[in-house]
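In this section we walk through a basic example: taking a raw amino acid sequence and producing a predicted 3D structure, encoded as discrete structure tokens. The instruction is simple. Fold the sequence below.
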Amino acid sequence: MSDEARLPRIEPSEAPAPVRPTFDAFVAERGKVPNLYRVAAHAPVIAARLAALQGAVMGPGEVPVLLKELLSTRVSHINLCDY
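The resulting token sequence is shown next.
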């Protein structure tokens, strides 16, 4: 299997107008835009819904946000993938 992506990751500076606010929020919050969102930006409606889903899952709730981040990092480590 090739490591070459079928869809290029969109650079934050080249993001379509509808996804710029999402990209800006990621940069402000995390310092970069996750690759999943850089690919999803090819379909701005999907990128927006994906961001809303992540906000609902990873945002404030019964489980502390910090614990959710820790679990996400650990699951990525267990599965030998970058977080």
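Looking at the output, two observations stand out. Residues 12-78 form one domain. The helical segments are 20-30, 35-40, 44-58, 65-78. In the next section we compare this with other chains.
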